[in-house]
Amino acid sequence: MSFEQARRKKVDLEGQEASPFAIAVSSAERAVLHMVREALQHKRMRLAFQPAVYAAAPDIIGFYEGYIRLLDEKQMTIPARDFMSVAETRELGREIDVAALRLGLTTLRRNPGVRIAVNMSARSVGYKPWTQLLRRVLGENPGIGKGLILEISEASAMQMPDVLIPFMDELRGYGITFTLDDFGDSVTSLSLLHEFGFDIAKLDGRFIRNCNRDPENQPILRAAIAMAQEFGMFLVAEAVESNEEANWLREQGVGCLQGYLFGRPELDPDFSLYLRARHAAATAG
Length: 285
Known about the structure:
The chain has 12 helices and 9 strands. By secondary structure, the chain is of the alpha/beta class. It has a single domain, classed as TIM Barrel, CATH 3.20.20. It has an 8-stranded mixed beta barrel with strand order 1-2-4-5-6-7-8-9, surrounded by 5 helices. 33% of the residues are buried.
C-alpha cells in the first residue's frame, strides 16, 4: 500500500483510542511535513524540466514544464508525488507554489528565449508572497512574462473563477500564457470556459495511455479536443509514451506532445539545444 493510499484510509475516530495503523500514518505525515519544512527553510527545492515538443516537428521543443522536486539532507531527489498530497492543503502548499514560481522565474532570467510552464493553484492568487514575487519580477524584468506559462488544473480553476478571471486578464498584459491543466478531468461550465479564455488546454494524462486503441477514452478525448478547438485553445497532450499514441493525437489536431517518449524531467537540461533548434526552425521558415 502506498503512502497516499494509507493516508486516505486513515479514519479519525474522535473520542476513541487511535489504532496503531492511524498512529503510524500520522507519524508518517509528520515526517513528510518536517522534511518539506526543512527543504523550504534551507532552499533545497529544484525544478525538473520536461520538454513538450511540437507534434508536427518532434525535434523542436515548444516549451518545458517545471516539476517541483525536493532534495533531502543527502541531496537525494524526491518527486512531488511523495509529499504534495500531504502538503498541498496546508500553508506549506502555498509556500511550495512560491518556491516553484521563484525557480521558474530564475530559470527564465538566466535563459532568455526559453519558455517555462510552472504549476499554480487558484489559492496562489490570494497568497501575497506569491503575487508579490510575480509582480516584482515582472516589473524588474520587462519581457520576462512572454516566457512564462502558468498551468492551473481544471478542478482548481473552477473553485475560484471570480478571483482567477480578473487575475488572468491583468497578467496577460505582461505576455503570460495560461494553461488549463488536466482538461477533461472535470465538468467545466462552458460559459466559464469562455470567460477564462485559457490559451492552452492540456489533455488529462489519464486518457492518453493507449488512446490509439482505447474505444472508451477516444470519445472523451475527441469531445475535449473539439471543445478546446471551439474556444481557440492550443492543445497539448501529456503522458505520451508510444509512437502510436503520438500519431493518433497528431491526427486529432493536438499541437504539442509531452511524455517519456520525448524526454523525462531533468534537473539541468541543456537549454541551448532548445534555443538553437528554435532559431534554426525560424530561419528555415
